[in-house]
Amino acid sequence: MKVTTQEFEDGQAILNIEVESEELEKSQEQAYRQVSKKINVPGFRKGKVPRHVLENFVGADALKQEALEHLLPDLCQQAAKEKELDVIAQPQIEVIEEDPVVFKATYPLRPKVELGDYHSLKLELERVEVKETAIDDVIQNLREQAAIWEPVDRAIAFGDMATIDIEQRLEDQESLQYEGQQLPVVQGSPLPLPGFCEQLEGMQKGEEKEFVLEFPEDHENNRLAGMKYDFKVKVTEVKEKSLPDVDDEFVKSLGRELDSLEDLRKSIAEGLQKSTEEKVRREFEQKAVNALKEISKIEYPPILLDQEVDLMLRERDVMMRSQGGIEAYMQSFDKTEEDIREELRPHAAERLAQRLIMSKLAEEEKIEVTSADIDGEIERETQTADPSMTGYLDLLKSPQGRRSIHDDLRIRRALDRLVTLTAVPAEESAKAEEDTGEIKAEGGEEEEKENETRGTGETEA
Question: Looking at the structure, do residues 153 and 230 belong to the same domain, yes or no?
Fold first, then answer.
C-alpha cells in the first residue's frame, strides 16, 4: 500500500492510496477460495474448481471486484492508523485508477473546536419587572374566558358569535349543507376561508346571502391554491359577548382558592415574574451561545450535518404523527423528502454548531456528570411520565439512554456556566457606561487644558 497524496478540508482527510500488486494478488486468491465454495460449476465439486476455470466462469473482473470489496476497507483502516487520523466513521471509497488500482478514501474526522476567549465576554442580562398593564391584560383574558354569549337583535359586528346555515359548493362538485353552525366573527380570520367573516359583517338575523370565495394562487397548500367556493348562508342568530365584572366574586369563581382581587393580582404578578424570567433567561442563553460561536472556530465533516438533518427529520415525523406524519405533510404541500431536508439543513447546521461548542466548553470547564446524576434524572422522568410509556422509560435506562442523559446534563451545566461567566446585570452595565462616559469627559477636559497651555506657549515664543 502506498499513500500517494494527503489533503485535509471540511473536517475530512482525503488519501489517495495505491494498491500494491502483491496485496491485490493475495486478496484475489482469498476471494477465489471463498467464491469457489459458493458457486456450482458443472463438472467440479464446490471448493475444488481451479482458479482459471472459475475466472472464466464468473469473469476475471468479477473476481477482482470481489477481492477489492474486502481489501479496500482493510487498507483504509491501515492507512488511517498509519497517518494517525482521528476518524469517527467509515470512509467513502472511490476507485480512480484500475491498473495499478488507486482509490480515494475520504475520512470524516473528529470535529475540531477552538473556543475564543469566553472569559472576556460580558453581556447585559435584562432586569425583569412586571408592569401593572401586563397584569391587567391577564385579568382581561380571564374575563374573556368567563364571558357569556347573549342573543342580540342587531346586525353582525366583528367580535360577535353568529349561528348560520351554510350551503357550500366547490367548483363543479356537489354542494354540502350544514345547519346551526356557530362561528366567531373575527376580522381577518382565515377560517373557514379568508374573507368569510367579512362577508357576514352587517348581516341581520334571518338574512340570506350568496358569495364566492377563492383561495389565493400562492396559498401554502398547493392542493387548495386557486380553488373557488360558492357559498349561500343564512343567519339564524346573533350573539354578543358579555364580560363579567372584575370583583371578589369573579375572583372566587375562577377556582384558584383566592378570595380577593388583590390576591388575584399578586398571584398573576408572581406567575408573570417567573415566566418572564424564564423567557429572559432562554433568550440570554441563546445570545451567550451566539456570542461564543462568533469568537470560536468550528470544523466538522459533512456526514455530521447529514446525521443532524436525519435526526431533525425523525423529530418532525414524530411531531406530525397525529396528522399522518412527514409523508402526509409532503403530500399536502407537494414536497419531496429532499425539499424538506434542504429546508432543515440551515437550522441543523446551527444546532450542530451550538452542541459542539457547548461540549467543548464543558470539556474546558471540566464539567462532570455522575452516575447518581443520571439516576436522579431517570427517577424524575419516571415520576412524571405516563405509566403506559414503558418503552420510553426502558429506553432511558438503557446504555444508550443513559449516555443521552449524560450528554444533555453536561451541556445544560455548561450553559449554566456560560451564563454565570458572561452575565452582567442591566444596572451594572448602565453604571459601567456612565463611569466610562465620566472618564472620557475628564480626559477631554484635561486634553483641552493641555492644548490651551501649548497654544499659550507657542504665542509667547
Answer: yes
Residue 447 grid cell: 486634553
Residue 335 lies in a domain: no
Instruction: Tell me, yes or no, whether 154 and 68 share the same domain.
Output: no
Q: Does residue 7 lie in a domain region?
A: yes
- Whether 421 is in a domain gets the answer yes
**Which residues 6+ apart lie within 8 Å of 70 measured at CB?**
27, 30, 31
Q: Are 17 and 35 in contact (CB under 8 A)?
A: no
Domain boundary among 242, 272, 292: 242
Number of domains, the chain: 3
Residue with cell 339564524: 236
Q: Show which of 223, 242, 261 is a domain's final residue.
A: 242
Torsions phi, psi of 182, nearest 5? Answer: -95, 130
Closest alpha carbon to 114 in 298, 292, 242, 259 = 298
Do 170 and 100 share a domain, yes or no?
no
Note whether 51 and 31 are within 8 A (CB): no
Grid look-up 470481489 returns 66
Q: What is the pLDDT of residue 23?
A: 84
What is the domain range of residue 226?
A: 148-242
Does 356 fall in a domain?
A: no
228 and 154 in a single domain? The answer is yes
Q: Chain centroid to CA 112: how far?
A: 22
Mean pLDDT, each 10-residue run in order, the chain (461 residues): 81 90 80 71 72 70 79 91 89 88 91 94 92 95 93 95 93 86 93 91 95 82 79 96 92 89 94 95 95 94 90 83 78 84 93 94 95 93 77 82 92 95 76 56 55 46 29
**Rounded Cα gap, residues 350 and 281, in angstroms:** 20
Residue 234 exposed, middle or buried by CB count within 10 Å (0-12, 13-18, 19+)? middle
